[in-house]
């Protein structure tokens, strides 16, 4: 166990098409841009940096695998906002994986995908 680790402060989504992913995430979320370079992009999402990084390292892998998403990210909203987020996602034309659903674990969720097939979730505690 790494007992020195106290929190998650940075999440990175590896991507093939950095410009396309950056456009998608900027259109989707109101987060302030924290940093940007030729191979990376990060937004301040509360206390966490949400980063996008082009696959440039040998261990990053390559190619898209929509049948095997690489990550799932969850974004919390208030219960009354789940449906309005879903409606906005439908307007944006992105792939909806699961419409608003009340889950037995006490969450109302909407699942959708980013342009590279990663699973994104908007959820509220109910």
Helix and strand string, N-terminal first?
EHEEEEHEEE
CATH class of the largest domain: Alpha Beta
Note the gap between the termini.
33 Å
Oligomer: single chain
Please summarize the sheet with the most strands.
4 strands, mixed
Number of domains: 2
Percent of residues in helices comes to 10-25%
Uncertain runs with pLDDT below 50, 5 residues or more? none
- Neighbour order of strands in the largest sheet: 1-4-3-2
CATH architecture of the largest domain: 2-Layer Sandwich
- Roughly what is the average pLDDT, rounded to an integer? 90
Q: What is the radius of gyration computed over CA atoms, rounded to a whole number of angstroms?
A: 15 Å
Question: How does this structure look, described?
Answer:
This protein has 2 helices and 8 strands, in the order E-H-E-E-E-E-H-E-E-E. The strands form 2 sheets. The chain has a 4-stranded mixed sheet. A 4-stranded mixed sheet has the order 5-8-7-6, covered by helices on one side. Helix content is 17%, strand content 40%. The chain folds into 2 domains: 7-57, 2,3-Dihydroxybiphenyl 1,2-Dioxygenase, domain 1; 69-126, Signal recognition particle alu RNA binding heterodimer, srp9/1 (2-Layer Sandwich), CATH 3.30.720.110. The chain is an alpha/beta fold and 126 residues long.
């Amino acid at each position: 166990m790494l007992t020195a680790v106290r929190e998650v402060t940075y999440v990175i989504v590896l991507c093939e098409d950095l410009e396309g992913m950056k456009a998608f995430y900027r259109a989707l979320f109101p987060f302030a841009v924290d940093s940007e370079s030729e191979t990376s992009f990060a937004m301040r999402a509360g206390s966490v940096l949400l980063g996008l990084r082009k696959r440039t390292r040998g261990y990053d892998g390559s190619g898209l695998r929509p049948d095997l998403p690489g990550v799932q990210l969850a974004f919390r909203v208030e219960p009354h906002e789940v449906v309005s987020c879903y409606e906005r996602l439908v307007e944006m034309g992105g792939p909806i994986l699961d419409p608003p659903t009340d889950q037995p674990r006490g969450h109302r969720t909407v699942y959708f995908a980013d342009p590279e097939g990663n699973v994104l979730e908007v959820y509220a505690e109910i």
